[in-house]
Amino acid sequence: MIPNEVPLIFQRKKSTKTDAELLSDKASQVLAELSQDYILQVKKDIMVMHDLLNRAETVSPQKRGELIQNDFFLKMHDLKGQGSTFGYPLLTEIGAAVCDLLRHKKGFSGLDITLLKRYVNDADRVIQENLTGDGGPKGAEIRNRLKEDNHV
What we know:
mainly alpha; elongated
């Protein structure tokens, strides 16, 4: 044995991550990659929602109802369903408030469309300003507006 050499039996095993830790690391990496895709998809959905609401202003009341109750609702429902998963619970709250509103409406006036546009703008703001978690003071502002509108 070479001087200062520790016998193999007494050597400390290098710390290695457990299978669970490795799996958790991999899941975090995949979620981070999906988050980038999610943000791009939300930006596209916001553009589509703006287009749908602009079209709703120019069509018959029946067609307006169909656009909002079907196409617009589906985009908002997606927003509601995935926001919290990717760190944007405020998007989930906006989506939930709008979906609840749309479930109980029969017809849509110009004022209703203006309100829906504001919610889409709020969702856009959440993404553009990266308002993750509770969104801080800006998130509180959006949340207060939702409460004032009696949708939360």
